[in-house]
């Protein structure tokens, strides 16, 4: 069917080319008609006029046939595309049927439960790492430099704020939270 489609498209293009040739021949005949009239050759002018009209009609006929063949080619193209889509859909349906038969809902449910547990463990580990990193960052930056920079920014902005950085007592509180998270993480690993 695709071979026929190619042949139809080729024929339509060929007819369109023939129509252009007829149009060119019509213009040439009209030019010859004008020359014959200028020379006073009425009989020659009549022949060139008939030829010009014949070329025009023949060109129109080629255009009509080209349009009809192109329309048929479009219908064949639709049929070929529909056939291919239908074939592909048939394959998809067969694949879906085999996939549905091989699906074990109990296994999928267990897998999802395991995924949820692992995801919770990951959350705890991520939170522990974030807090540990936050503690390390706070300890590595000198408090007096941070306090000085904040006071400088406050003075430049003309703000009156009571800015105090966490004291050693707060650091102990953070350490207790970290110990609690470490214990939770160990418990999760054991379960």
TrEMBL record:
Any GO BP: vacuolar transport
Entry keywords, A to Z: Coiled coil
InterPro entries, per database record: Snf7_fam
Lineage summary: Eukaryota, Metazoa, Porifera, Demospongiae, Heteroscleromorpha
Stretches assigned to coiled coil: 8-39
Species of origin: Amphimedon queenslandica (Sponge)
Domain of life: Eukaryota
Listed Pfam families: Snf7
Protein name per Swiss-Prot or TrEMBL: Charged multivesicular body protein 1b
Cleaved signal peptide residues: none
Family designation: Belongs to the SNF7 family.
């Amino acid at each position: 069917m695709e071979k026929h489609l190619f042949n139809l498209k080729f024929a339509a293009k060929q007819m369109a080319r023939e129509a252009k040739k007829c149009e060119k021949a019509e213009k040439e005949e009209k030019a010859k008609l004008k020359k014959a009239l200028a020379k006073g050759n009425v009989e020659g002018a009549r022949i060139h006029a008939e030829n010009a009209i014949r070329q025009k009609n023949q060109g129109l006929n080629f255009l009509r046939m080209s349009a009809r063949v192109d329309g048929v080619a479009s219908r064949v193209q639709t049929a070929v595309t529909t056939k291919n889509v239908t074939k592909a859909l048939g394959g998809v349906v067969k694949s879906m049927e085999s996939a549905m038969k091989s699906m074990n809902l109990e296994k999928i449910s267990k897998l999802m439960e395991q995924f949820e547990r692992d995801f919770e463990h990951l959350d705890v580990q991520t939170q522990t790492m974030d807090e540990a990193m936050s503690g390390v960052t706070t300890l590595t930056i000198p408090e007096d430099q941070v306090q000085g920079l904040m006071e400088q920014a406050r003075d430049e902005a003309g703000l009156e704020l009571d800015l105090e950085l966490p004291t050693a007592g707060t650091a102990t509180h953070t350490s207790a939270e970290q110990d609690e998270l470490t214990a939770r993480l160990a418990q999760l690993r054991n379960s």
